[in-house]
Design goal:
This protein is an alpha/beta fold. The chain has twelve helices and 16 strands. It folds into two domains: 75 residues; 301 residues, TIM Barrel. It has an eight-stranded parallel beta sheet. It is globular, with a radius of gyration of 21 Å.
């Protein structure tokens, strides 16, 4: 039998609301054939050799609630075919792409058609709440819904009249509305948030951080539209979490994975990860964000990918566009931070990387089931060098921790078979 894996004993996470178990597992042609005693019996009957399990784990696929792909078809920085291949091999089963584009996705004809199915990675598209995200005129919401968007997104929400008008006209209570806290300002020279270490390093710093005022504004909108599924995108300031906790308003939030890994004290000076949106802050701020995650003030961890090619990646940092792109690093680095260093349960990490993002997007939560190809095999002990020889030469160039040794890797996924 080709492409067959039989683990006599391996750690398995079946899905949401359960803990990891150790059991037998048989996979044939990429599809889960059997668990437990039945897996052993079938393997013995067909003389299937045991696959070494070590410390590996089989688990449901991951879900990315927001990333950017500006030109899906003809993109030079990245395109849909390359992104799907890289994300799938990194363990992702679904990705929702933001409206950001040179041809802003604010009308139905601008939403690329995707036929999703259970045997491939699923791509969803956010539609723009207003035309060109200018916050002046509403996009045609009903037509966008019929075109298959996953929800509506906006980074312009301070004109309450257009926001209130749009939310009042939306019928679907469960349709997600994503309000982004981050918006590129071409006049802003600041790269990282102001703290002692960023000043000592000599970076341009962000003097005025408006995130807390934006959060207060969104909380006010949510308090008025209590039944709407409003999500705050890219929380990055500990004060914002404190405001959400103090106001005790039920609202969903996401965080960029990189803000849980990097801060102004722990990166090499030449790392591409310095210039990102949302910007990095101090070690203390990152610790506060992690505590917010542990307290479930933050529900979803997003990849928040923005791809840049070689030409754009090697522009001097002050002039370079913001953002990093590396689906391959997400699970290994988060595993190291939360499972290895902090002793999290594996189920807790998957809650924020898969199950909660599915819930935020209103899609079916990932789980392991008979006949399914929607599984990943992660080896927490696998060592590999983070370069384009391993990432693939079709990968964007703005990946962090370049040429560093990484421990942990998704080594197989069912969707690849």
């Amino acid at each position: 039998m080709r492409k067959t894996l039989f683990f006599e004993t391996i750690d398995i996470l079946m899905g949401p609301n359960v803990e990891v178990i150790t059991d037998s597992l048989l996979i044939i042609d990429g599809k889960i054939k059997a668990f437990g005693k039945e897996a052993k019996e079938i393997a013995l009957k067909h003389n299937i050799k045991i696959t070494k399990s070590g410390n590996k784990i089989v688990a449901p696929m991951l879900v990315d609630s927001h990333s950017v792909l500006r030109e899906p078809i003809t993109g030079l920085d990245d395109n849909l075919e390359n992104l799907k291949s890289r994300a799938k091999k990194s363990g992702f089963g679904s990705i929702a792409l933001m409206p950001d584009s040179d041809n802003w996705r604010d009308k139905p004809e601008k939403i690329p058609f995707q036929k999703n199915n259970e045997f491939d990675i699923n791509i969803f598209f956010w539609g723009s709440f207003s035309l060109e995200d200018k916050g002046k005129n509403l996009s045609p919401h009903n037509e966008l819904f019929r075109s298959g968007i996953i929800g509506l997104a906006s980074s312009n929400f301070f004109d309450s009249s257009i926001i209130f008008k749009g939310l009042s006209l939306i019928d679907a209570k469960s349709l997600p509305i994503l309000f982004s806290l981050t918006k590129s300002d071409p006049l802003q020279k600041g790269i990282v948030k102001k703290d002692l270490e960023s000043l000592q390093l000599g970076f341009y710093v962000i003097e005025n951080n408006n995130e807390i005022s934006e959060v207060k504004n969104i909380l006010g909108i949510k308090n008025f539209f209590k039944t709407k599924n409003i999500i705050i995108k890219n929380i990055s300031d500990s004060n914002s979490l404190q405001e959400i906790e103090n106001q005790n308003i039920s609202i969903s939030t996401t965080i960029s994975w990189w803000n849980l890994i990097a801060d102004t004290s722990n990166l090499q000076l030449n790392d591409h990860g310095w210039k990102v949106d949302p910007p990095l802050g101090s070690r203390e701020n990152r610790e506060s964000l992690i505590k917010g995650l542990e307290k479930n003030l933050i529900q979803g961890i997003a990849v928040n990918s923005v791809a840049l090619n070689d030409q754009k990646s090697f522009i001097p940092i002050n002039n370079r566009s913001v953002g990093i792109s590396s689906f391959e690093l997400v699970l290994p680095l988060l595993w190291e931070e939360f499972i290895t260093k902090r002793g999290w349960k594996i189920s807790k990490l998957w809650e924020h990387l898969s199950f909660n993002p599915s819930r935020l997007l209103g899609i079916t939560q990932e789980k392991l089931s008979l006949g399914s190809k929607r599984w990943l095999l992660f080896d927490p002990d696998k060592k590999w060098k983070n370069d384009q020889n391993n990432l693939g030469y079709d990968s964007p160039s703005n990946f962090p921790k370049k040429d560093e040794l990484i421990i942990g890797k998704v080594i197989q996924v069912g969707l690849d078979f």
